[in-house]
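Help needed: design a sequence for this.
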């Protein structure tokens, strides 16, 4: 009897080719299109991405002769992803909605809907791979980076569990993007030349401050520039990983006012655009925000010392192991390859497990370590665990 796979068909080329490959491999394939957002506030394009996407998804399903289903998950998406975004920005953090969307929607609520349709597996068009092995008689699932280094999306799945992976398939993970496009053209799929979606997962490309002003009020505050020669007074002189993991303690007296902004919660460390301060020899970058005092701290130049951190901290409540069997014990340390944002090259570092959580100590100083983002750690191209940076 054929195994049934429900593919999350988004209307894009990746999920379209994933659906084709599954059918070609002999699975019974059905398409499920999810609508997760129906608000146009802050969208940079007047075109509704949902209307375009569902049209392409229907055309692909018809071409492949597979059943097409629709589910509206907008209430769940707002409650479990968007509201979380607002809460995090209000605290002065910068969340990653794509990681949350995968954990809370695609591989949770959507997975449940697929199982209701009788699915044995759910599939997506992610560029990552899964391998199932047996350890002490227990089936264990490995989440491995995609074969295309430029498109690897394993980072976005860094919060998945063994239970979620057990029901998941990633049909295009062994391919590179040009190969996926070529398959789509060869099979004359409607999405063959469709551009990849950008912006917030399922929301689209938005003007973030406008989007956030639905719940976060604009409020004028000062932009304070910290000169490079003040860095020695702010970066801890202790070289241990715990001291260097602390967020820098900026104070107004460290610098001078160079401009005004409309709300510290609209800005993030490493940001260059939107400051509107001119007359400098080099561009200004955000090096810190204080949402309580509504102050943005900036430094001149992309190599300003205060843009860099040597370590970071993840509290116990935010630690997640995709491979619980590889969890490091308390009061021990282990080397990993680490990524703190999508598309960042893997960085060498050491995880230190303590009573209060995990400290990650990097070999090299890291630019723009952002609270609220996810740090993910790998062993030999396998994503082993992750956590939210404090």
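Sure. Designed sequence:
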């Amino acid at each position: 009897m054929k195994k049934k796979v429900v593919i999350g068909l988004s209307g894009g080329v990746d999920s379209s080719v994933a659906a084709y490959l599954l059918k070609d491999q002999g699975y019974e394939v059905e398409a499920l299109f999810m609508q997760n957002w129906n608000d146009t506030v802050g969208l940079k394009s007047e075109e509704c991405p949902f209307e375009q996407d569902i049209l392409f998804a229907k055309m692909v399903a018809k071409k492949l002769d597979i059943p097409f289903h629709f589910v509206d998950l907008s209430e769940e998406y707002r409650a479990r992803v968007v509201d979380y975004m607002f809460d995090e920005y209000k605290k002065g953090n910068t969340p990653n909605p794509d990681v949350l969307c995968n954990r809370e929607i695609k591989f949770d609520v959507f997975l449940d809907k697929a199982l209701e349709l009788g699915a044995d597996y759910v599939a997506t068009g992610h560029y990552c791979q899964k391998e199932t092995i047996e350890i002490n008689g227990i089936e264990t699932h490995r989440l491995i980076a995609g074969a295309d280094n430029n498109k690897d999306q394993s980072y976005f799945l860094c919060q998945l569990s063994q239970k979620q992976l057990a029901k998941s398939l990633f049909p295009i993970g062994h391919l590179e993007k040009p190969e996926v496009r070529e398959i789509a053209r060869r099979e004359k799929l409607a999405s063959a030349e469709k551009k990849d979606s950008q912006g917030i997962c399922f929301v689209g490309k938005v003007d973030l401050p406008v989007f956030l002003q639905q719940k976060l009020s604009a409020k004028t505050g000062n932009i304070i520039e910290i000169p490079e020669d003040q860095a020695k007074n702010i970066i801890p002189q202790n070289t241990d990983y715990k001291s260097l993991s602390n967020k820098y303690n900026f104070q107004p007296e460290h610098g001078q006012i160079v401009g005004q902004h409309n709300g510290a919660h609209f800005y993030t460390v490493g940001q260059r655009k939107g400051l509107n301060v001119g007359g400098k020899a080099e561009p200004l970058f955000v090096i810190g925000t204080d949402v309580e005092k509504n102050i943005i701290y900036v430094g001149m130049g992309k190599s300003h010392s205060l843009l860099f951190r040597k370590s970071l901290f993840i509290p116990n409540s935010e630690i997640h192991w995709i491979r619980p069997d590889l969890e490091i014990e308390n009061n021990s340390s282990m080397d990993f390859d680490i990524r703190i944002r999508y598309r960042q090259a893997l960085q060498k570092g050491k995880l230190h497990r303590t009573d209060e959580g995990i400290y990650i100590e990097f070999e090299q100083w890291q630019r723009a370590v952002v609270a609220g983002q996810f740090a993910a750690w790998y062993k030999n191209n396998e994503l082993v665990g992750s956590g939210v940076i404090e």
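The chain has three domains: 4-211, 216-307, 308-388.
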